[in-house]
## 1
Amino acid sequence: MIDLRSDTVTKPTEGMREAMACAEVGDDVYGEDPTVNRLQDMAAAMFGKKAALFVPSGTMANQLAIRLHTQPGQEVIVEGKSHIVRYEQGAAGALAGVQLHWVLGDRGLISAEQVEAAVRPKDPYTIQTALICLESTHNNGGGTIYPLATIERIRAVAVAHAIPMHLDGARLFNAIAATTLPPAAYAQHFETLSVCLSKGLGAPVGSLLMMNDLTLLDKAKRLRRMYGGSMRQSGILAAAGIYALEHHIGRLKVDHDHAKQLARALQQISTVRINPHDVDTNIVIFDVIGHRLSPSAIVAALKKEGVLINAIGGDSFRAVTHLDISSAMIQEACSIFSHTLAN
Ligand SMILES: Cc1ncc(COP(=O)(O)O)c(C=O)c1O
């Protein structure tokens, strides 16, 4: 089966499993797991931040950040199709007591002008803006990379209004691999940022929340405990993360090339609408128009032929390339798409 549903479906490689099996461990609630400490130090140094906190998921990292920067009754500016809006089960409202102020982006990217317009006036009766969240790469936008210049302009708005910024960098490593910009070039503009080890990097579990403010780190540790995310001998998981950081960042470019190849093949099919130039990284979003089958029947037909993808609403579909997808699998997927999607 060629599983293009998500880059979260990867299984740990032999080398990664070996690193996990050999990991030195301790009780991380006591701060005594040397492998967790090493992963956190490595990540913080890589992103030019003072501290990193290992957490079980990207959702937890985002939700800790929202809770850290806000008070109940405040508002967070966030893109309308972001993971925080769509897939975190209303956690920002349920756990932090905040309201999300959606701004609709272009392929998931919002502009400084949109952010400026969304910041609430500081008067005694309007809800107060406490945080600006960006997502890069943007999942629903199609793996879109925020241009650094856009982030800088949004940052200027945030600084002018004294509003902190959080980056949902679940797939920031894809942006880093694609642009070859140093990780700190992105990280410097955010009070907190999260990255996932369990997406393109291929680790089974884990995300990191990074920051400069050590008071925030203390608070984040307490909240992680409150949210049930404190772990014990989690060095076994952190070892997979270290292995991923050491071995799997450079190869993300292969996934990006595969995604482009897939997009170019899809463009040749008469029922498919896609612009391969829109494929920045490893996510391919395309529409199928006027096909005799419904979207769910298209997914089922592709599955029967050996390819898994997701229908993501309306006429749209998403295919994601990753570590467990070889060039031969991409070639085969292209031919399956061309005979299954042709009307
Ligand atoms: C952009 C983005 N942020 C956050 C997450 C959450 O990660 P997790 O599934 O580890 O909670 C995802 C997961 O797909 C994501 O795509």
Note: Residues 125 and 252 are 48 Å apart (CA to CA).
## 2
Amino acid sequence: MTRALVATGQDTLDVMDVELRPLTPLDVRVRVAGVGVCHSDLSMVNGTLSPSYPLVLGHEAAGVVTEVGDAVTGVESGDHVVLNWAVPCRTCWFCTRGEPWLCSAIEGLTGTPGGLLADGVPFEACLGLGAMAEEVVCPATAVVPIPDDVPLEEAALLGCAVLTGVGAARNAAQVQPGETVLVVGLGGVGLSAVTGARLADARRIIAVDTSSGKEALARAAGATDFLLADPTLARQVRAMTDGRGADKALECVGSAATIRTAWTAVRRGGTCVVVGLGPRDQQVTFNPLEIFHFSRTLTSSIYGNSDPERDLPVLVDHLRAGRLDLAGTITDRIALDGVPDAFERMRRGEGGRSIVVFPRR
Ligand SMILES: [Zn+2]
Ligand SMILES: [Zn+2]
């Protein structure tokens, strides 16, 4: 039996013992060391997404491999690994043209069969992982080995927030040295987007949030300016950029209002990237003349437009070289039963990343 955080329905969370599914020859078992509380976990229980329940939450994790299936190669028991929640098939139309984040096999996936609850009811594992649990059984293709000297709790963040945020800046927005980058929404992903802009040598990074409490975290991640979200935001950004607007904007909220604001704050010919996962019951409106006149690009970033096998090792190098400070992003270390409170902090827009840590055995 494994302790796990189970969503039995919308907004109903319980810590309980579950029986993980048996290993197939292509699976591994991982003892989870740390798992981040990501906004997508909240989206699984607040009605934004419609997964099947019961669902073991969690997809941003790192741990130690404790068992490998007979046909597994390249991963061994004892390896430290980051979990990857979007395993591309490598054979579909998107994968073969180098866009594995758009893989047909994972499009719209919210969970896969994870095992049985104590009463025999089958549960799903969130995004194929269900990592808010002491242990995970997942395909070997869903783990990326990392060096043993990387702290596992920090490495957990690489698997979602960092890959998503840094990838949004580097892969999706293609931030260039010297550019001005606007980042709206400073949760775990937004702070990582600030970091990504810094790693890409942006000259000016304007970070925006509704909470002034985010300023110190933003500046630690590399923001040069901090603004409170405000109806005059786009005007303020233009005033800071000789009237032009930012070269790139990274919208890390996923709401119609912030998408519209971020797009408006971008210069003519600039790019606005939607990183936040938003609801389907809002509309963003543009008039035809402004679309023509401003010649801006509006696009999205899915999992940072990353290939985890290619991009995770690069992030690990940044972490080991001290260019990524993830310890500073982790503001709350909690147990499984602390996740509902972490969701509340997220709803209130407080703090950086909360991470569930498991006692070492
Ligand atoms: Zn996530
Ligand atoms: Zn594919």
Note: The mean pLDDT is 95.
